[in-house]
Each structure stands twice: as structure tokens, then as C-alpha cells.
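agent> step 3/5: call structure_predict on target 'FAD-dependent oxidoreductase' (Rhodanobacter sp. IGA1.0).
agent> reason: downstream docking stage needs a structural representation; sequence fetched in step 2, passing through unchanged.
tool.input:
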Amino acid sequence: MDLKSGYPFWAISNGLMHAFPALQQDTRCDVVVIGGGITGALIAHELVEAGHDVVVVEQRDIGWGSSAASTALLQYEIDTPMSELARRYGEADAALAYTACAEAIPRLGTLAREVRDVGFAKMHSLYYASRRRDVPAMRDELALRRRHGLAVAWLSADALRGDYGIEAPGAILSRLAARMDPYRMANRLFARLERRGTAVFDRSTIHSIEAGSRGVTLRSSDGIRLRAEHVVVAAGYASQQWLKEPVARNRSSYAFVTDPLDPDALQGLADTMVWETARPYLYLRSTADHRLLVGGEDDASDVPALRDARVDRKARKLVTKVARVIPGLRLTPTFAWGGTFAETDDGLPFFGPHAQYGPRVHFAMAYGGNGITYSMLGADLIRALIERRRHRLASLFSFARLERKP
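tool.output (status=ok):
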């Protein structure tokens, strides 16, 4: 599955960071993790730290799929507002989803400091009203978040203009967000795991999964067998190929990054990521070297050839949108790219077993705009499921949610 087009910034700035071997012989272990992106890295790390014998298998080079194209906005804010989740599943579950994501941000920061040199930095998150008619619903959202202990503030149109140069009728400002280089984080995590004895294989494709009552057997496209007690399918947006029925919609999103800018020209954008109420939404955030990374212009196609042809035109549209919202900011794309992403109907992820395979095959589908935050939560959840422990998110993030009526 071709997951990206153009020139993703992380792949260009980092290159191929570390050489991992291909799978060459039959192997046994406790857990096989299929997928060598940031989700697989966080899950493998959690399991190894807990004492499990883990083998990782990736069909491309490590981190070279969606992680290389990710814009890595680390937020507790979900694409679906808390107020809408409350209408679907009740206020308690909506608050659980948001507050759990809020707890994941500092945990990501702690791990990033341990791994080191992954471009992690704390930021603020600014969610602005695209239209005046969006303001009443945003005021309700603000009140709901405050009721559940999330630190948020309302910014008026004058404050937005003065602090950020943004022309919008109002915004919710959250102090809890962060940025990171996801490709670098995945590579450095896997390299560290390998140094500590974990087998990490890339350029190795799993062809089949056979789940039984006592274990799971995987076969590679070269006929090599892997036997494990459990399997975690963390193959990003390609994970759905293992299911008979789709559980999310694959789409394409587009982004570009600028050359380094004068920090003074960024105003408040230097430490604040920005996104909007419109769907699909425009978003932007700074990088460690003072570039601006801008994304959006999502469309319903995930056909690689169509995505390839649209990258430059989509980048120009993004430039125009930024100029409309922030009139004093004129941007020139240096690198532009497009990538596949998936979105669920409610904006929540899926973690855990699916009825098609039984309890020993776990899926890690961290879909949505804050996928890395979900992956941090999913690592702990997957570990609990494998160790047969209860977890507060097990029901809300499971496939059983598909049966729940809004």
C-alpha cells in the first residue's frame, strides 16, 4: 500500500537512520508486532519494558510508511468535540476519552526525554472558529471541558488578532499540547530496543495470520514462520487489509513545510499549534528549527496516482487559506507531500481483538488527527489485554463500540 506522495519533511531531514535486517528464519516469541511505525514502536517498547519477548516485523524500512508523512500534532483534543462524543456515548465516556488523551501528552514527553533528540517540545493548542455561527457550540465545548478539569481559555477576536495575527471570531486555547518528529522517534525507539535484544526486522512482509486457541502462526511472503502467543497488528492505515469489513475510511491529506522563518515573524505561532472548526480543517504548527508545517485539504481519495498529481495544487490552496486567516503571514512551500490517513465515524481509535481472529490477535488502529496520542494510550491498553488485566479504556476503544447506537 503506497501511503505517501511527494517529499515528506521527516524522511528528507532524517534520511534512512538505521539499518535493520530482514526476517530470514523461523522464530518463536511472546508477541509479534506487525508494523514498524510510531504506533508499533510505542507498543513494542511498552511490552518489552514489561518483560515480554517481542519480535517486530515491518514490510518497508522502519518508519517509512505513514510515520514519515505524519505532521505529529500531539493533542488531547480529538477530531470529534467532547460535546458531540457526549451526545453519542454519554458525558462520562466523552470525558474519559479526552482526559485520558490529556494524560498521554506528558507521558509522551517523559519517554521522548529518555529516548532523546526526537524534536519534542511542549506547545499550546489554539482551536479557532472558522465561522461566527460556530461560536455558541464552541462556548458549550469550553464549559464542558472545564467541568472535567481541562485547562482551557476563551480568546476573543481582538486577542486572536493581537497575539497571533489570526482573523477569526474566537478560539479555545489549551495549554496542553506538544510536537515531535515521529519518524525520528520511531527509529530511535526501535534502535534502542534492538540494542537491548529485541528482534526488529524490516523489508519483511507478513502474508498470513492463523490464530488458534493456544497461539498464532504467521507466515511471511518468503514462507518463513513466526509463532507467538499474541500478535499486535499495528500496520497503520494498512491494518484494515486484514479485516473482511472496513472499520474506517481511508482518505488523503496534504501538507507542506517552509524554510526556517524569522522567529519574530511567527508571533505566537512559535509555541502554539493552530486548527479550526471547519471540516476538513486547516492546521499549522512550528518545527524545532522555526519552520512552519501546514496541513489540510483532505479529500476522499486514497488512490496513490491521484494523490501524487494533487500535491502541488493542494499546497498552493493551503498557502491561500493561511493568507486568508493570517493576513500578515506569507508562506512559500519548500517541501510538499500527501499521505493516506484513516478516520473512524466517531473519531475514536480501535485497540484490541476482533471477532474475526479471536482473543490472541490485537489490532492497534490509532486513527484520527491525534494518532500518536492514541498510540501512547493504546500501548498501555494492549499490554493490559495481553496480560489479562482490566483497563478503563478497553470498552470505549474496542470494536464492540461499532454495535453501540449513538
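agent> step 4/5: record observation. The CA atoms of residues 273 and 285 lie 4 Å apart.
agent> proceeding.
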